Amino acid sequence: MKYHVENFVTDIDKDKTVRPFIDFSKQFENRIVESVMVSIYQMVEDGEKAIKLTQFKFLFERFSETNQMERMEIKKRKLDSLNALPLIGAGIITAIVTFGVISIVGDLVNVL
């Protein structure tokens, strides 16, 4: 990551367009990073107007919420896959108990 940040800073010094910001955002899987980087570029170009800061804050909060929701969804899917384990265990126990009962009944029938 350090390498990418250093290249990003170098590219900003060489190229004053939005291109270095977009190129840097392509290092990330999430496409919202591109929106955040374009917003940062606009803040750099337009100055630190209050409306730009508000837009950036909104965009960054949306990015944070989306990222958090994705993490929660991944965790939920992992935990949902664990729900089958107790059912499998209960099925095995039921089969063992059934086999045991049938064995006992079979032994009683053989004795009588």
Automatic annotation (TrEMBL):
This is Type II secretion system protein GspF domain-containing protein. The lineage of its organism: unclassified sequences, metagenomes, ecological metagenomes. It comes from bioreactor metagenome. Keywords: Membrane, Transmembrane, Transmembrane helix. The chain crosses the membrane at residues 84-106.
